[in-house]
Design goal:
single chain, 276 residues, four-stranded mixed sheet, alpha+beta
Length: 276
């Protein structure tokens, strides 16, 4: 009986699934969705309500629903600790497997999406680990800075660039394989509030093939700056340390174990404030 229970427990850990509604057969495709929010009369606040409604309804590609395991080991006070956590295989997108649209958003909305999906945004260290473990390492596709970089047409242009680069890998690494290098991460950090106590969006990543991030940890933008390069990666809150179940929040707050997930020391407030 004990052996049976252990086997079942291991299976449950290995087969983590995203907690989200089934995608409806008549849900919008990615291109249909992006077209629906392209109108410049739609405010950022209105756009974000539409985005959340689509995600809450389950309108994300089916291949996002099986999470990818990341393992890491850290030595703390001469003791080796192993962590296992689970991440969505690509940055959040709306639509179907055949037609999906990467969806930049404010960090507050990303936090709400994380809560909905029982997850969190990554740290800088997690972003690095995801890139290291990615089966598909795409090359960053920067678009020259301009006032249009926060508009839906530029989001669509970048979406096309990324998808064109992803396509040749589909035979060897089908949809659902861990992908990185295509966006910067919106991250949780001790820099969510700047030195003056002002809330900022913190971004990091966009790793190059040599493994180095184009974007260092940066909190120079207000949270209303949402540009084409921002990606939202959800990390399941539930994780395992040395075989025991825990959570991202507990590990990030731990004086002893925070280095399993953070290279900034403990992160006591690992979230962006929301009103819900």
């Amino acid at each position: 009986m004990l052996i049976f229970l252990l086997v079942i427990g291991t299976t449950l850990v290995q087969g983590q699934q995203l907690k989200i509604k089934k995608r409806a057969s008549d849900a919008l495709s990615g291109s249909e969705f992006s077209k629906s929010i392209r109108d410049t009369e739609i405010t950022l606040a209105e756009r974000e309500k539409i985005i959340f409604k689509q995600i809450k309804s389950g309108n994300i590609p089916n291949f996002y629903r099986s999470l990818t395991e990341i393992r890491d080991t850290v030595v703390v006070n001469s003791k080796t600790h192993t962590i296992r956590y689970f991440v969505i295989p690509d940055f959040i997108a709306i639509g179907s497997n055949e037609d999906y649209f990467y969806c930049p958003m404010k960090p507050q909305l990303a936090q709400r999406v994380g809560k909905l999906l029982k997850g969190s945004l990554p740290t800088r260290k997690i972003s690095d680990r995801i890139y290291k473990n990615a089966a598909v390492k795409l090359v960053p596709e920067p678009i020259p800075p301009s006032p249009q970089m926060i508009t839906v047409p530029v989001f669509e242009k970048h979406n096309t660039l990324v998808n064109a680069q992803r396509k040749p890998y589909l035979v060897s690494h089908p949809l659902g394989s861990l992908v990185a290098g295509n966006k910067k991460d919106v991250v949780i950090s001790n820099k969510i509030y700047n030195d003056k106590g002002v809330l900022r969006v913190v971004i990091y990543g966009w790793h190059k093939p040599d493994g180095k991030a184009i974007q260092p940890l940066y909190n120079g933008h207000s949270t209303i700056h949402v540009d084409y390069s921002h990606g939202i990666r959800i990390i399941q809150n539930k994780l395992w340390v040395d075989g025991k179940r825990s959570s991202m929040q507990k590990i990030l707050a731990s004086e002893e174990l925070n280095s399993l997930l953070s290279d900034e020391g403990p992160i006591l407030s690992p979230f962006y404030p929301t009103t819900d």
